[in-house]
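Project channel, design review

CF: Before we commit to the Arthrobotrys musiformis constructs, I'd like one complete example in the thread so the newer folks can see what an input/output pair looks like. Taking Magnesium transporter.
RD: sounds good, go ahead.
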Amino acid sequence: MPRSTPSKLLIAFSSLLLAHACYSAHEHSLLSTTSPDAPDVTLPLDITLETLISLSLLLVGIVSSGWELKPISLRSYAGGVESGRISVEGRKGGLFSALEERGGFLDVRKQRKEFTEWVKTQ
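CF: and here is what came back for Magnesium transporter:
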């Protein structure tokens, strides 16, 4: 689904506004470093507001240009998995097949004992 024209225009306008805010901030930093009496090193309020407004407009444009969200229904997803229409990571056998086919617990003490016996024989 292509982006709509208003969202394209909003993205373009807010991108230009953001570029202007960045340019203004850069020029302000150059001006404050070249002048001998420049005690004010903070960014002016108008540049800060322009940056925040352009970023918020850019976010609104990006979000509004997205595709329409589909409703999520666990019932239809789980039903599709159980019937085999949808495979979960290449596995068949249902949604909970990984839990049903897992191995048992390992006996760490037994493995440690076998390892020490193996090391003694080496």
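RD: helpful, thanks. Residues 3 and 11 are 11 Å apart (CA to CA).
CF: The chain has two domains: 5-64, 81-121.
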